[in-house]
Amino acid sequence: EHIENILNSCLNKNWPRYMKFKPIAILNLMKYKPIKYKSKLIEWVDELRTPFWACRYAALMSIYRYLPEVDKSLLDSLLNKTINDSHKFVRMKAKAMIT
Fold it and tell me: Could you give the 3-state DSSP secondary structure of residue 12?
């Protein structure tokens, strides 16, 4: 619980948007509590709410790594948000996940 609190504090709005520990926090929250945090994936892949491309990429990485039984509708929604992302690495990851 203490580690989860630390990881959540890494993602709060008090930090600058482009802190390098934010993607790691996303990956670790999804690794240890995937069911609890899968609802946050929509926010984490949304470019307006999560401007740092590495966070969006980390959210996409965590889907297949930690949510092997992801709902088709959730997956479609996540990929639709990222397939036209402004950052090419996020777009490439989304396209790779489609195939």
Answer: coil
pLDDT in tens, the chain (99 residues): 999 999 999 998 888 888 899 999 999 999 999 989 999 999 999 999 999 999 999 999 998 888 877 788 888 889 998 999 999 999 999 999 987
Give this prediction's pTM. Answer: 0.91
| Whole-angstrom distance, CA of residue 84 vs CA of residue 80 | 8
CA distance 95 to 2: 36
- Largest Cα–Cα distance in the chain? 38
